[in-house]
Write a structure and sequence with these properties.
With 352 residues, this protein is an alpha/beta fold. Helices cover 46% and strands 8% of the residues.
Length: 352
Amino acid sequence: MTAALGTEEATAKEDIVDFLVIGAPKAGTTSLFEYLRHHPEISLPPDKEAPYFNDDRVYGAVPWEEYVRNAFPGPERRRLRATITPHYMFPVTHTAESGERDEYTVPRRIHQRLPGVRLIAILRDPVERAYSHHHQEARRGHDDRGFAEAVDELLRPTELERWRGRFDTANCYVTTGEYGRILGAYYETFPAEQILVLFTEELARDPEGTMRRIYDFVGVEPPPRPPRNLGKRYNVSAAEQRFDKVTPATFVKVASGNRFARRIWHSLSEEGRKRVLARYRQLDFRFHAWNRRGEAPAEEEISAADRAALERLRAHYAPDGEKLEALLERRPPWLPTLPREGSPQSSSAPNP
């Protein structure tokens, strides 16, 4: 009986993912992936994106054990498994028109499978995030609207309600930045001690200190030396990409579904798999560096119409920012600084 229980516990451990970086998109998740993958006690999928709980083509269709086996094909001597999937702060993807989901769907799915998982969110000023997101989709040819036109359309009450429950990357610019609403569902589903919320500004200003907070949160020691790439920015928006649909990750996904390729992979020694993964990561980084052309428009190039749209977004996000502050018990850095108690600005007396 004891041996049987031990076998069950070992099997359960094989199916565990220890922590998830859940988003937000365009907020630094790629940089976190590049820093974390160097830690000797953390195992990540070869490619950053490994969605499960938010994708109806996978969730309920692919057995969890198979997903874990495919997502973590490398040597299993590392202690913790993790995925970095910013789409966990989007609505469920590829759901039928009649099968809309709300912001509680993904947290509840995660909790059902991984009740003890630790969750990390990294958040960027939602106005900057929306502008960057639109720029990316316009560059890719997914949205031919100008930024101001898109914002005006997506701020309509009917559109806000629509895209809070459905996924479409070209129409989620606004709703994805409603962090208080989205994270509120996670905080109602998981204990607060299982959630760590970081800000993009913190990662940029103090990458080493921010990574130490992550290591402490997930329960690993900091590496003997910080990653050599620590502080390097990844996935910075560019004006154009040479290739959008085909990347090194495309070939990995194709190979992972091929029985012959999987047999070859599992026949390799642990050292052989390490060499293949190292070579893949080097190729992937070089490809993405080569694939960028130009840079995102500088701030002074933003049109007057777009600046006005940015201000409308700022007003839209203000109530949600207050909700986020209440959840975190600290003020997000993009909200105006509150006057100190006793300062002239804090006086409630009317102006003369």
